[in-house]
Design a protein that fits this description.
Blueprint lengths: L24 H14 L9 H15 L14 E2 L9 E3 H18 L2 H18 E2 L4 E2 L2 E3 L2 E4 L2 E2 H16 L7 H13 L1 E2 L4 E2 L2 E2 L9 E2 H18 L2 H18 L10 E2 L25 H17 L3 H18 L8 E4 L5 E7 H18 L2 H17 L12 E2 L9 E3 L7 H13 L3
Antiparallel strand pairs: 1-16, 2-5, 3-4, 5-6, 7-10, 8-9, 11-12, 13-14, 14-15
Helix pairs in contact: 1-12, 2-3, 2-13, 3-4, 3-5, 3-13, 4-5, 5-6, 5-7, 7-8, 7-9, 8-9, 9-10, 9-11, 10-11, 11-12, 11-13
């Protein structure tokens, strides 16, 4: 592709640390030393050139093979790009791939990527969308609705996909954002709890299960919707969700965010206790989710700063990182119990990717050199074990504690499409814009 004119910044970059948070000279020197030490013989992980190149490498894996001419995207691939499970599409991957193409296209100044994003967005509204139910099918099989359960988790990414389209200039107005927000308001929002319910059956019955995961991603989507539309209602809702989960409910769990709750948002300590490796609802504290809330808090703080947000962002990240960093094999493990003992020592790609983003944002917000050291440690580990330097993208969903792959899958519907890794690089660019 011809070199385009440098595009405008994708997001508003982080401001410099406040005077109260500025580093002393010794910390600044330590930061410089950390950069030199961490990047000796390695890419400069904190440079704009590196981050943009890595985004381009990730998206390059998907460009020649993702488009399903019959509608939407092929979503399941082995490491070498060979497709498997053809005909199956899940709304989270359908939406996340739209986000990937839209945001990469905007950042890199590539219309071809935005056009691929439009292709996926059209399928969300003409394939997954069921006009007779005014709802989105959760899964599609051979382009026909298969699972029509409504998940707040899925709607979070539909909202975020429309936000990415608006931000990238692929659509002209925010009507689709408003439509999705209004559906979520009607079917899932629980104002008395300051949170969203989770699951609506195909027959319209609301489950008693309540979870933080869907609310965390809804918060993320609300921030994206605000950044794209500048409509304050999205930012205000993100603030409410952050307060609910990182303050009020975390106060019931020694300052951390538990995954599962009863109908009335009391902590359910036993939900899936016998299934700590459940893909969507694992038991235990998820260090990756504490750290994703760090990212959400910092992104809200950018637009509506309150001191508690920065404090909670640091507390969540610090506890998660210190508890789950594997000093023997590198990387962050997947889960730990209330006693802080690991309950799942597998390594998941998204935990490393999201932690890269949050460490970068914390370094920019506080000036604390330790977050740059965390950032570089995560990148060195991921560069060695997770990045596919031959085909592009990152390897698979998870590895064993000692970094052995479980299978040869790179992406699969509903589980991985390199959304976390690509978007985390974009987030890091807020902190390292040069």
């Amino acid at each position: 592709h011809p070199a385009p004119e440098p595009p405008e910044p994708l997001f508003r970059p982080l401001p410099p640390p406040s005077m109260a948070m500025k580093r002393p000279a010794a910390a600044s020197a330590a930061s410089g030393a950390a950069k030199k030490l961490a990047t000796a013989g390695k890419p400069e992980f904190y440079s704009r050139a590196f981050l943009e190149k890595h985004i381009d490498d990730i998206i390059a894996f998907y460009v020649p093979r993702a488009v399903d001419e019959a509608g939407g995207y092929h979503q399941s691939f082995y490491i070498d790009g060979t497709q498997f499970n053809p005909g199956f599409q899940q709304i989270v991957s359908s939406s996340r791939m739209v986000i990937n193409f839209m945001l990469a296209g905007k950042l890199l100044g590539r219309k071809d990527l935005i056009d691929i994003g439009r292709h996926g967005l059209e399928y969300l509204e003409k394939g997954h969308w069921l006009p007779e139910k005014e709802a989105y099918a959760f899964t599609m099989r051979d382009h026909k609705p298969e699972d029509t359960t409504e998940q707040a988790y899925g709607y979070a990414f539909v909202l975020a996909a429309h936000a990415a389209a608006l931000l990238a200039g692929a659509v002209d107005d925010d009507r689709a954002l408003t439509k999705v927000f209004d559906i979520m308001e009607k079917r899932f929002w629980l104002p008395e709890h300051g949170a969203y319910a989770d699951t609506l059956s195909a027959d319209g019955v609301l489950s008693d299960y309540r979870g933080q995961n869907s609310n965390m991603h809804i918060c993320e989507a609300m921030i994206a919707a605000y950044e794209a539309s500048k409509d304050e209602k999205y930012l205000r809702r993100a603030e409410v969700l952050a307060d609910t989960f990182t303050k009020r409910l975390a106060g019931k769990a020694d300052g951390l965010i538990w995954e599962h709750y009863t109908k009335d948002f009391e902590i359910d300590w036993d939900y899936n206790k016998d299934d700590p490796k459940n893909l969507y609802r694992p038991w235990g504290f998820q260090p990756g989710h504490q750290i994703e809330w760090t990212k959400n808090l910092l992104n809200i703080h950018r637009y509506a700063p309150q001191a508690w947000m920065l404090q909670r962002a640091r507390e969540l990240f610090d506890t998660a990182f210190e508890t789950s960093w594997d000093h023997e094999h590198g990387g962050l493990v997947y889960g730990f119990g209330p006693d802080k003992k690991w309950c799942d020592d597998d390594k998941y790609f998204w935990v490393q990717g999201e932690s890269i983003a949050s460490a970068a944002l914390l370094h920019a917000a506080t000036g604390d050199a330790k977050y740059l050291e965390n950032y570089n440690a995560l990148w060195q580990y991921s560069w060695k074990h997770w990045v596919d330097h031959e085909h592009g993208g990152w390897f698979g969903l998870k590895m064993t504690r000692d970094n052995k792959r479980y299978n040869e899958e790179k992406a699969f519907a509903g589980g991985k499409c390199d959304y976390h890794t690509l978007v985390s690089c974009i987030e890091a660019l807020r902190a390292f814009p040069q």
